[in-house]
Amino acid sequence: MKPSRSTLATRAGLLAGLAVLALARSGVAQEPGILVDAEWLAANKDDPSVVILHPGMGHAGMPEEVIPGSRFLDYHEVAVQNGDLRIELPPVDDLVELFRGVGVSNDTRVVIVTERSQHIAARIFMTLDYLGHGDMTSVLDGGLAAWKAAGGPVVAEMTDATPGRFEADVRDDMLVSADWIHERLDDPSVTLIDARPENEYTGERPGGEGLRGGHIPGAYNLYWVDLTRTEDLPELRDLDEVQGRFDEAGASKDGVVVNYCLIGMRASYTYMISRHLGYDARFYDASWNDWGARDDLPLVEGTQRN
Question: What is the CATH number of the domain that holds 259?
Fold first, then answer.
């Protein structure tokens, strides 16, 4: 007598469950997403295909504590000044050489860890996403603080890297300009996320000499820090709560979400979370440093979006 369909389905479910259990016991990891936790990193940090990058400010010296196996990445080689724009992407060839130098290849899973500055980790994610490596890049949620809270070991020395073989597949459409946004201010499929604190959004604090105060018409104020739990443990808040903020902004999976701030650092975090939530995310790198300096572009003062 042949087994029924329900019996076969039950057997298939049991076999699938046993396969997952076997993989877990064998140490084979599930495919990570944009955010990974300390448990995943502890299980995978010794995998030769995983490269842990610890970005920092080179002029400030090396970090005192890092996860074993970490490689140092100087933030100022990833974000450079371009004229009056303070934080911009360097030329693609320079970025490719930089990531090759820390051991990144096209088949490398990059995991970015910072001490508490998750927007810096997000800036590295955004850069690698622009270079076409975003699907192979993760950020340790909560950074080194989360690692230590989970009992993870730390060391004082960085690990030397064997140069990698990395080739960029640049996503030109990921970056948008002021003119691109201006042409779409009345497009309901475009959601603008302003990642600055409220006093910059309203115009009370323009953010720099020569900049007008306010925000881009229609932009929703989502200060990037409000997406994290605490300053000491900057993990992403409950996903339903985070999704609720993007819903309130009017974001749609059928449209695009454009992220900006003052200089393009803080918006890196909302960009990363936009991607984490599954939106078609775009990045206005020049941000208010550009828009606020141009008298030909409209703005809104105060708390109203329009």
Answer: 3.40.250.10
Residues contacting 54, CB < 8 A, separation 6+? 63, 66, 67, 70, 71, 72, 73, 112, 113, 114, 158
The reply to whether 302 falls in a domain is: no
Residue 194 is encoded by which pair of tokens?
């302003």
Report residue 37 as tokens.
Answer: 């936790």
pLDDT of residue 225: 97
Q: Which domain holds residue 51?
A: 35-149
Percent share of the chain, pLDDT over 70: 88
Q: Which whole-number Å values give the CA distances from 150 to 9, 41, 146, 157, 190, in the listed order?
A: 38, 11, 6, 20, 39
Is the pLDDT assigned to residue 26 strictly greater than 70?
no
CA distances from 208 to 77, 86, 196 (A): 23, 11, 13
Task: Using DSSP bridges, classify how beta strands 80-82 and 85-88 pair: parallel, antiparallel or unpaired.
Answer: antiparallel
C-alpha to C-alpha distance for 281 and 279, rounded to whole angstroms: 5
Query: Three-state SS for 211?
Result: coil
Give burial (CB, 10 Å; 0-12/13-18/19+) of 21.
exposed
Report how far residue 31's alpha carbon sits from residue 255's, in angstroms, rounded to the nearest whole number: 27
Q: Is residue 133 part of a domain?
A: yes
pTM above 0.85, yes or no: yes
Contact 194, 261 (CB under 8 A): yes
Residue 147 CB-density burial (10 A; 0-12 exposed, 13-18 middle, 19+ buried): buried
Q: CB–CB of 214/196 below 8 Å?
A: no
